[in-house]
Amino acid sequence: MQATADSTKMDCVWSNWRSQAIDLLYWRDIKQTGIVFGSFLLLLFSLTQFSVVSVVAYLALAVLSATISFRIYKSVLQAVQKTDEGHPFKAYLELEITLSQEQIQKYTDCLQFYVNNTLKELRRLFLVQDLVDSLKFAVLMWLLTYVGALFNGLTLLLMGSRLKSQALKGTLSKLTSLRDWAQQKCLKW
């Protein structure tokens, strides 16, 4: 009985996504379709001009600057009006966004832990729970824009693998020289 309920639920979710995709393709809601396709076009154009690292860093900086500005604005407004409304993103900070056990299969328990912690940390950083940490994150994203301007992701992967192989070669040469030294000492003795 549970399997049929789950399949019915999945069919309902699938038909909802399908109808939303059809509505976008047929331009039934012009504003929504324009926003979705315009954002997608801007993302594609950005990826042709900049590396993925730079695009992600600039998007993160844009969201951070908006949320930090809003948090500071609300804090100043509360100080001037002498109200105690609390954190402006409190409702979003208290939302449960962890992935459920049903969504994660047996072999992805470790991945679930890291995804949940990453989502919680990103929520905390982007919604400015701690202003200093969010500013540190903004500086890191700003520095990543320069890294992304200099290198693309493939170049960084190649550099990392080259450094790893050179470190392994250096370790192997040290081990062989240690072995040769030990053999010479044993032969002299």
TrEMBL record:
Signal peptide bounds = none
Q: Which domain of life is it from?
A: Eukaryota
Keyword set includes Cell membrane: no
What does the entry give for GO biological process?
brain development; endoplasmic reticulum tubular network formation; neuron differentiation
Q: Which residues form the Reticulon domain?
A: 21-160
Tell me which GO cellular component terms the UniProt record holds. Answer: endoplasmic reticulum membrane; neuron projection; postsynaptic density
- State whether keyword Oxidoreductase applies: no
* Localization per record: Endoplasmic reticulum membrane
Q: Which Gene3D superfamilies match?
A: 1.20.5.2480
Where are the membrane-spanning stretches? Answer: 35-61, 137-159
Which PROSITE patterns does the record match to this protein? RETICULON
Q: How does it sit in the membrane?
A: Multi-pass membrane protein
Question: What keywords are assigned to this protein?
Answer: Endoplasmic reticulum, Membrane, Transmembrane, Transmembrane helix
Q: What does this protein do?
A: Inhibits amyloid precursor protein processing, probably by blocking BACE1 activity.
- Its name, as the record gives it, is Reticulon
Tell me what organism the protein belongs to.
Pipistrellus kuhlii (Kuhl's pipistrelle)
